[in-house]
Amino acid sequence: MRQYIIKRVGLFIPTIILITIIVFVVMRLIPGDVCVAILSDGEATFTQEELIECRIELDLNKPMVNQYFDWIGGVLQGDFGNSYWFKAPVMEELADRIPVTVELTIMAMLISVIVAVPLGIVSALRPESPMDYAARVFTMTGIAMPTFLIAILLLLLLVHVGGLAPLNYAQLWDDPLTNLHQMIWPALALGFYEMGFVARVTRSAMMEIIREDYMRTARSKGLSENSVVYGHGLKNALLPVLTTSGWIFARLFGGTVIIETIFLVPGMGRILIESIFQRDYTMIQAVIVIAALFIVTINLLVDLLYGWLDPRIRYA
Amino acid sequence: MAVFRTDEVQDADLEVASLEQASSVSGNLLAFFTATVAVFIVSYVISHFGTVSWLDLIIGFIAAISLPLMLVMAAVLKPVRSTIIRFSRRKPLAAVGAVIIILAVTTDVYADYLAPHDPEGVGVAKCESDGQTSRKFCGPGAEGALLGTDNIGRDILSRLIHGARISMYVGLMTVLVGITIGTVIGIGSAYTGGVYDIVVQRLVDALMGFPPIILALGLMAALGASINNVVIALVVILVPGATRVIRSEALRIKELDYILASRAIGANPFRVMLRHIMPNVAATYIVLMTITLGFAIVVEASLSFLGVGVPEGTPTWGGMLNIGRKYMEQQSWLIVFPGLAIALVVFAVNFLGDGLRDVLDPRLRGR
């Protein structure tokens, strides 16, 4: 196990360094440079002095390599630079927003697992039954409908039926009830796609496991059907869900951009969109790096957990 | 080979019409069919760039002619036709998906002729609302606009038809370019090994660390809104996944005896990769293309929906939804039709992708 951890963490570090380099390079793909893009926004004219001033403010007057190391030095201390739009450190604005997005993602993940795993199991235990077909149609719908379409339809339904939460956002620790009321619909819309995906993975895993020898042994020693399915089957059926969960988390995290825009949730995703329109490149850069760091860390944890649960992985 | 197989499947809808026709064909005709397919793909891609007007006209014309030619030939040629029939018997849902995709591509190619009005034209229809004549927000069935008009009086049907252009073009183009680049890198990385392989693997890991939409948004923010920038952003997010899948496939093939044999008689690495590994990952390549096509269409629609994809004003399904969502309480048709269009196409692509995967490459199940 120790070697496995060392190997896995050893892969983690170069990945993170590469991620920061990629983000840094992408932000230098802007035609001209950031300052030209900001100042010439909407056909505006600008003077040479303004350009120089802006470049000094954003540290663009140094060589590229220095810029990168200055930026990384800051990032390591939690300082992602100053926003050109807010005229304040990026982290000040993001500090309140990161928990919102993380909460939304986790809620969506929980919702999709809670709904999808039983669905997948029922579907696998009685293949070709009406229940199975119903579950599969539901799964297909979940996979084929884009997140934003689900979100819009849900919002339309809420407008007609009622149940919309108050608009002023309440933090989880200030007013848990209002917060949950505000977050439940966005989380449901966000989790809908993954519901289909998780149900499909659980179903196919369970279908394979049912035919395993240890399931027959469990039955032949007289265990009740429930303890065979839940005690022996479910544990193994959840392994593929666990392996894909890093990926699921990444997609949910990306999906928050759309959900937060539609449901007006003040999270990281929404500020990313706003920053793109305001050409606030420091903010864009920070949000992308933070998102990627989250995903890579989650993936690392999932891998370690998987190695711990399934010894075959460690020695592979 | 690759091109040939996709099209057999895409042409599922014409199989019935030609069942009774005579069916002895020579290899020449088959070669001609493959050539038509190639001509269609090339003219289809070029016709979307739209820079030189007279050239556009000619190339659009070539695409408009080669599409039906391709479909008819697929229906007439016996080997192609029997494959189609076999496939549609085995996977009827996938065949339905293929028909919908062909219809969408046809809509795309003939958009200029099919659309009743100019998609950007304002005030093409009129209707009565609250006792006055209005040109905006006409409901479906209004005079001159079958599916109604939008917030500034543009015809929704025409915009939907032209929206198919963007969705299908961006989807097909990114998948074609992205998966091809991924395949080339993946095979190279698996066959060469060593430092090159390690570098590629770390890069793939890093790129896969980004949530796809967020990376696409970052690229769009840097590159600026335009159709071809959407294609570039999507290619960047598709390449790492394709590289990883193809690499693992190529690693397995590399160890097989015929590769050793071919190296033993002195084939150079490029020949081995091109002639021996490439054909053996062809099935995976096609399956990857169909599986990711739905994803590409959804991401393009999401970007346009968020207003950072295709420039505003250009009719796209995502953009139409974005406009419609402001008025959805009263004028629900503004979101219903583009929403249906997206859902239908994505459904079709997913069904076709699943069917092809089961037939061509069952090992990719669950990805």
Describe this structure in words.
The complex is a heterodimer of chains A (316) and B (367). Chain A has helices spanning 2-27, 34-39, 48-57, 64-76, 90-95, 97-125, 130-144, 147-161, 176-210, 213-220, 225-263, 268-278, 281-309, 311-314. Chain A is mainly α and 316 residues long. The mean pLDDT of chain A is 84. Chain B has a two-stranded antiparallel ribbon. Chain B has 367 residues and is mainly alpha-helical. Chains A and B meet through helix 1, helix 7, helix 8, helix 9 and helix 11 of A and helix 8, helix 9, helix 13 and helix 15 of B.
How many runs of DSSP E, i.e. beta strands of chain A?
Answer: 0
What's the pLDDT, averaged over the residues of chain A? 84
- State the distance separating the first and last CA atoms of chain A: 12 Å
Q: Which term fits the overall shape of chain B?
A: globular
Fraction of residues of chain A in helices? over 70%
Q: Write down how many β-strands of chain B occur, each being a DSSP E stretch of 2 or more residues.
A: 2
Q: Could you tell me which chain pair has the largest interface and how many residues each side has?
A: A-B, 56 and 43 residues
Q: How big is the Rg of chain A? A: 24 Å
From the alpha-carbon coordinates, what is the Rg of chain B to the nearest angstrom?
23 Å
Short description:
The complex is a heterodimer of chains A (316) and B (367). With 316 residues, chain A is mostly helical.
What tags apply to this protein structure?
heterodimer; A: 316 residues; mainly alpha; B: mainly alpha; two-stranded antiparallel sheet; 2% strand; disordered N terminus
